[in-house]
Amino acid sequence: MVYLKAVEAYGFKSFADKTKVEFDQGLTAIIGPNGSGKSNITDAIRWVLGEQSAKSLRGARMEDVIFSGTEKRQALNYAEVTLKLDNSEHIIDAADQLNITRRLYRSGESEYFINQTKSRLKDITELFLDTGLGKESFSMISQGKVDEILNAKPEERRHMIEEAAGVLKYKKRKKETASKLDETMLNLSRVSDIIFDLEARVEPLAIESAAAEEHQALTQEMTEADIQVTVTDIKALKSDYARLETEIKEFKDMILIKKERADKLEIALGHLSERQAALADNQERLNRERLELSTRLERQQGRLSVLYEKQDNQSQAEARQQKELQKLEAELKTLQQLAEEQADVTAALKEELTEVRQEERDALKKLSELDGDIAALIESARDQYYQVLSDQTAARNELKYIEKELAALERYFTENQADHQDYQDIVRDQAAFEDKLGKLETELTAKRTAYKECLADIQRKQTRYRELDEQLRQGHRYLDQLKSKQQSLTAMQSEYQGYYHGVRVVLREKLDGIHGAVAELIDIDSKYQTALDIALGGQLQSIVAEDEKSARAAIQFLKKRKGGRATFLPLSTIQPKVMAESIRLSMQQIDGYIGQLADLITAAPQYTSIVRNLTGLVAVAENLDAANTIARQTNYKFRIVTLDGDIVNPGGSMTGGSVNQPSVLLRQKEELEQVTAQLTTYQQQLSALEDEYNGLKTEITDADFEAQKLQRAGEDLAEEERTLKMQRDELQSRLYTLKAIHQQHDERLRQKNEYDQNYERLNASMAESDDQLKRIEQQIADYQLLQTDARSIEKEVSQALSDIRQRKVMLEERLKYQQDKQLTNDERLQQVKSALSDLEAVEEIEDIEEQIAALKSDIKQSEERLSAVTQQFEQDKAVAEEVTADMKEQQENYHELMRQLNNLENGIGEMKGQYSRIDVQLESLIYHLMEDYHMTFEAAESLYAEPADIDAARKRVKLTKLAIEELGPVNPHAIQQYKDVKARYDFLSEQQTDLLSAKATLETIMTEMDEEVTARFNDTFTQVQSNFAQVFSELFGGGNGEIKLNSADVLTAGLDIIVEPPGKKRQHLTLLSGGERALTAVALLFAILKVRTAPFVILDEVEAALDEANVLRFGRYVKSLSRDTQFIVITHRKGTMEAADRLYGVTMQNSGITQMVSVDLNELNHNEIKELTK
């Protein structure tokens, strides 16, 4: 068996000196007067076994267990207790001799040792688990523990049975298993959440992946067929090319013969042609002048009509304006009068409200003064009362202290008069010892400082490391999002999403001479996008072509493909529209004018005519008011668009309202540029973070290694320091003892005189303070009567304050209404003034009449000049007809020859056209091979054979293209994304299966543990139940005792105790006497010990409440149990002492310091024992 051999204590509570208490097997009793420190032995054993509650050790803080010093002894810096156990039978899984040590420093640092090896509290707790020992074990019953057991809840009481059953380790393991199960469930929940999210992605990605794979397959099939068709077409075109070269040479020879004959006729016609040209030039000049005069005359007549109409309108406008002026002036006068009246009312209300607010402040001040003055008086009297009472208590305590000290002084005078030489030797040795310790402390402080700085540096770096790790994870996720968005936008742009079907068909085909859509070819600042989108609308999708021929070819292509419709803008025919410079300058003078829309657009120089044609006559304004002003200034001839998308159209009509975002065509291009720029910037930032992250990781590893070295060095120095301090404490303890003996005599004589004087003074002070307390009590009673009277006054003031506040609220509401009314009137007044200022004087009718007269004179001059020019034109026309007749005959001969020559040249031209078309087609096909397939014609010819059926191959190309178009846009990255997500999904699914399996395993383990606990608990409970009945009857000399479970659930049931003492009825524990309750608790303890023998049992005055007869029975029963179990009993009862094998006497000869005296009762006779225990 295991038994306690000894307890060694130093610095623990009252054990100021190193004390060793040795125990033998059997029954040991510890006796001594109250306050001598008997129970400190029990506390020391509980403390070593892991007690963490200072309250359970009868202290406020754990540091209270360290010896705090006395008048003669200096306080110690640490406490240390060691239990020495005999474990020769290896009941505990440890060595034969087991030393358990706990050490506590005043700094709060705590250390544990098992056989001088540094350990953890957990190691000690697990070492004694289910052995019957431990800080909460049933084998250690301290003072008050008996009532604690009996008053405990049934569920708490079952702990004793569990420990006896040896199931605590199972419950501990079950708790750990439950913790693992909770962790597994948490992980399972997280994995399930991730799987749920992935499931939502797997299916769409599977569809996208399948579409992408189908797209790849179709593209591969189309590529093969297209290359075969292209190679065949190139071969055919090269054959036609050689044939046309031969035919063109033959036609050129025939043309040379015809041209010699044509040259002779051409010379003759040249002279006639020069005469005719001179006449034609003059006629053209006269005709131009005649047309200019006619146009000028029409404009002048139109201007005359406009002036006549303006003359009529001006007369009507003057009449309307005069009526409006009279009406507004009358309303202005009325409003000004009303404003003056409202201002007077508002001022009166404000003045009244100010008075009410002052009344409210006065009432509040009066309330505060009523309550505050009396309360302050009462509070002051109470403070004075408590102060006097405190002084009286202090004086009483001081009297007791003086009485005690005077008695102690008498004892000191007769003790400790020697050891002076020892004192001198210790003083001499201490100086060298302190020097060594100081150096060691300096070195240790440096090491600890370096270690703390290193740890702080590691902490800072780890914090930054975690921040960087999180930033990198988030950064990579955001980078993936940007890349995905860029790919999506690129795909949308390359597929021309958002364009009309016809536009999309043309742009995808990349036809010759097609430059692109207007939206592709221009750029504009984002703040003008809405204006551009509204101004052009569908014209943004107009297609820019090189010339009319390219546009016609594209239209034919759409018809052939049935691909819809599109608008084309040939660069060769589209002319720019330009606003007159004078109009542009006048617009610039108007507030809110931004500029011409064409000037805000950026495009390549070759597209200037397109931009000017579409937007040259469109101006941009900040808002609709500015747009209306600009339109009026230009007589509603141009379109004015605002930044919000409102439009003033030519002619004066307006279009406006809410608009959505700008066209996707404009946003898409800008968004792609922004995303690309963000992607580049973010990649650079992420790279810098990764560099910092990797560097920090290396720094943390190096710093951690350095911290470990510093920690080991510090621990070595700390261990050396602790050893030196222990030695120093022992020296200092001895030094202070000797020094106190050396110096105390004179000091004590002086103190005795002071104490005598103070004793008389304090007695007089106590009598005086009693009188003062009575006077203060009477003052407080008088003040409380005054306070009662003040309460009634407070109610009256509070009612008046409530009336004032209601009146204030009413005035504030009236004032707000009046101010709102005045504000409305002021706004109308400003509107009338504005309307008056906006009316401008119309143009005078006399000015218009002067303009009409001047214009009539100009018209007359234009008519006279037109008549003269017409007459000259007719004369030149007759001469020209004569020359034309002479040329006709010569021209007919020349034309016949030229017709023949032209036929030959047309033949060559057609052949050259075929030649050029073949050349263009060849170039296009070869470019197609290189651009789309990165392959030369020679390479394609060598790799791909000609198809057996060229028409079938062409059809296959068309069908696969249609199939690809029907698929629509696909995500080219979906295949890899699907593989990645599917792999993660499969991996997490396996993890989920593993976690479910682990969950089932843990639940099975917990079930098995519950079964084991139930079996062990039932078996132990049955035995304890039987033993309790027997032990109860033996200790009480009869009666019945029973323990039972209070529920059917063995795992959670509590323990009820029902007893029937001899001669009494069956009753609850609370109805028993103190002695009966204590004996019942002891019976339960002994019943458990008979089932599970503890290595040793400590009983701390548990029989204090028993009568002498029961004490004798208690002593005999403990004696009988001590044959198998070691008992240590703290007692002051004679019956228990007589049963003991050994007595330890505890004394406190020096105030505050416990000393032990041992007596072996086996060596004394019966009479000596009786004499000793009296």
From TrEMBL:
Domain notes from UniProt: Contains large globular domains required for ATP hydrolysis at each terminus and a third globular domain forming a flexible hinge near the middle of the molecule. These domains are separated by coiled-coil structures.
Record-level GO BP terms: chromosome condensation; chromosome segregation; DNA replication; sister chromatid cohesion
Role description: Required for chromosome condensation and partitioning.
Principal cellular location given in the protein's record: cytoplasm
Family to which this protein belongs: Belongs to the SMC family.
UniProt xrefs under SUPFAM superfamilies: P-loop containing nucleoside triphosphate hydrolases, Smc hinge domain
InterPro entries (UniProt xref): P-loop_NTPase, RecF/RecN/SMC_N, SMC, SMC_hinge, SMC_hinge_sf, SMC_prok
Residue sites binding ATP per the record: P33, N34, G35, S36, G37, K38, S39, N40
NCBIfam families, per the entry: SMC_prok_B
Pfam families noted in UniProt: SMC_hinge, SMC_N
Location in the cell: Cytoplasm
Highest taxon of the lineage: Bacteria
Entry coiled-coil feature ranges: 234-370, 665-796, 838-914
GO MF: ATP binding; ATP hydrolysis activity; DNA binding
PANTHER family listed in its UniProt record: STRUCTURAL MAINTENANCE OF CHROMOSOMES PROTEIN 3
CDD domains, per the entry: ABC_SMC_barmotin
This protein's GO CC annotations: chromosome; cytoplasm
Full protein name: Chromosome partition protein Smc
UniProt domain SMC hinge: residue ranges: 512-631
Lineage: Bacteria, Bacillati, Bacillota, Bacilli, Bacillales
Assembly and oligomerization: Homodimer.
Keywords (A to Z) from UniProt: ATP-binding, Coiled coil, Cytoplasm, DNA-binding, Nucleotide-binding
